Amino acid sequence: MTDNGHQRPGLFVTFEGLDGSGKTTQAALLAQRLRAQGWDVAETAEPGGTRLGAAIRALLLETDGAPVSPTAEMLLFFAARAQNVDEIIVPALQAGKAVVCDRFSDSSLAYQGAGRELGESVVLDLDRIACRGLLPDLTILLDIEPEVGLRRASGGPVLDRMHGESAGFHRRVRDAYLRLAEREPRRFRVIAAAGSIAEVGARVWEAAAAELAARVHRV
Ligand code: TYD
Predict the structure, then answer these.
(1) What is the DSSP pairing of strand 41-45 with strand 11-17?
(2) Against a cut of 0.90, is the pTM above it?
(3) Which terminus of the chain has a lower count of CB atoms within 10 Å, N or C?
């Protein structure tokens, strides 16, 4: 991925984290707050943010337990991403809007690259094809212990196969996220997901407000 984030209009914020980290709630809250600041906001999600993405998500939901090849799974997530990028994200950014996206390529790096152990380089190859250098301005990583997240997410709309993965899988995903955040400290904010919705929301807003202030200075 290349950091071209500040040569284009708009604001691109992504939310990342384990299942049960509260991303979806916090993404909606941030969108609301950005609107209150006068931003026109496009909200989207991966894999299900477009019609095609929702169909791909349904394909992956796998109720009958039939095995899905890790590579096929990765390609499906990237097909959903390519559609999201072309249909929603890039047009919104070009129109100067803020885009708040629940999961993006870092999910594939963490879940497919590390969790499924496909490695980072193949994920980055696909990212180059699907996203063509598009990188978030700000990535909020809601960090949570896998055991706590899984307990919170139980009964929620998580993909069954991910949910049923081993403790080792979820730990690899979390560690990969933390490594990504360490590698790109300017783009990532690691926020503890523990606490009330309002408490976590305040931490998220602090990070977003800092990014907005920094952008004003960069212009
Ligand atoms: P979903 O219920 O759609 O959303 P969420 O858990 O974010 O509320 O489930 C998405 C699942 O798919 C989740 O377990 C993470 C996984 N996933 C990947 O493995 N790779 C990806 O690239 C994406 C976008 C998601």
Answers:
(1) unpaired
(2) yes
(3) C
